[in-house]
Every structure is written in C-alpha cells, then in structure tokens.
Design goal:
- Keywords: Coiled coil.
- By secondary structure, this protein is mainly alpha-helical.
- Helix content is 98%, strand content 0%.
- The N and C termini lie far apart (188 Å).
- The model has no long low-confidence stretch (mean pLDDT 93).
C-alpha cells in the first residue's frame, strides 16, 4: 500500500511537472501575444497620430482653399467692374470719335468756305486793282 502511495505520488509529481511545463509554455505564449498586442497598439497609436496630422493638414488646406476661393470671387467682381469700365470707356471713345468726325467735317466745310471767301476777296481785290 505504501508502495502504491509512492507510485501515485510519483505520478502526481510527474503530472504536476507536466502541468507546470504547460503553464510555462502558456505564460510564454501569452507574453508573446501581449508583446504583439502592445506593438499593434503602438502602431495603432502612430496611425491615429498620422491620421490626426493628415486631418489637420486637410483642414488647413480646406481653409486655404476657402480663402483662395473668396479671393478669386473678389477678383472676379473686380474684373466685372473693370469690364464694365472698359465698355463705358469704349462707348465714350466711339462717341468722341463720332464727335471728332463731325468736327472734322465742319472744319473741312469751314476751310472750303474760307477758301471760297479768300477767292472771292482776291477776285474783289483784282477787280479793284483793274479799276485803278
């Protein structure tokens, strides 16, 4: 009986050793898994930071685009005003050119009249000179 107890005790010790070995294996495996999870967690944090940085850059770009859009709209309004001014100036130039043409015609008429009057005056002078 004592011998049986001794054998049982030996078997229990052997089982305990196997269990302890398995526990050690599981603990090591858990450590590896925990390290892996920690590495992944660090990667995830890095990705989160990268995403936040990209979001910040994107938001800054959006704000800059909005400012540029506003500036372009202001420039477009100024361009329309300039175009209106150019149209008005073009109209004024046409009107002035028409007036210049009218004045040139009048000057031409006055020159013709002046020449006619000079000729008449010369004729009168010639006629008076012949009488004398």
């Amino acid at each position: 009986m004592e011998r049986n107890i001794y054998i049982n005790h030996s078997k229990l010790k052997e089982k305990e050793k196997e269990i302890n070995n398995r526990l050690t294996e599981l603990i090591e495996e858990n450590k590896k898994i925990n390290n892996f999870l920690e590495d992944n967690s660090n990667c995830i944090e890095e990705y989160k930071l990268t995403i936040i940085q990209k979001e910040n850059l994107l938001n800054a770009s959006i704000k800059e685009n909005d400012l540029l859009k506003s500036h372009i709209e202001e420039l477009a309004k100024e361009n329309y005003n300039v175009l209106d001014d150019i149209k008005k100036l073009t109209r004024t130039i046409k009107e002035n050119n028409n007036e210049i043409n009218i004045l040139k015609k009048k000057i031409s008429e006055y020159k013709k009249l002046d020449i006619k009057q000079k000729n008449e005056l010369n004729d009168i002078k010639d006629s008076q000179n012949k009488k004398v």
